[in-house]
Amino acid sequence: MLRLARAGSNKRLIVLHRDRDYLTDEDAKKWEVEVRKLGVEPFLTQGVDVESYLINAAHIHALNPQFEIKEVEEIISAVWIEHRNEQIKAFVNGRTNNERMFGRGAELNHGEIAVEASEYVHEKNVRYKHGKLLLKSIRGKFQQTGKGNIVSMKPTKFIQVDALAEMAKKAFGKIKDKAS
User: Fold this and answer.
1) What percent of the chain has pLDDT over 90?
2) What residue segments make up the domains of the chain, in order of their start?
3) CA terminus-to-terminus distance, the chain
4) If 42 and its partner were Cys, which of 21, 32, 120, 122 is the partner (CB 3.0–4.6 Å)?
5) Cβ of 106: how many Cβ atoms within 10 Å?
6) What is the pLDDT of residues 98-115, one digit of tens each?
7) Which tens digits make up the pLDDT trace of 62-96?
């Protein structure tokens, strides 16, 4: 696939995206090193999935000014709490699957993973926001206010990813800023 992508030019910048899911920091770094060995730039999401970037109060408010920023923050917080157990389950299952996939199943300590999951989710740790899960519920809460549906799938400066902006600059030169 890389040969096909590079056909005609060895100077093409190829970026490989992976949702971080529940990788440990160590496993994430190893993945990035392996991808760079292929001559490819890795892009690993900050949160569990790419949708986690959209769960940002300033971003949602910028696209939906009919909602006060405080109201947006309250809805995000309520949804986080409402889905706490689902996020813990996803963390435990995701981390367990990773440990098995990386050949560390024999060392697996489910209790330790569960405690870690509970701590991270309780702290509302941005790294472990499960965007796909939370975004659907956030949209529903906004609909219930009677002020309409929210827009979240448009760019704003609040969700810009510096690493991607640098890659774009490297590939295309100066980029015109279209984000609000």
Assistant:
1) 62
2) 12-146+159-172
3) 36
4) 32
5) 7
6) 999 998 888 889 899 999
7) 999 999 999 999 999 999 999 999 999 999 999 99
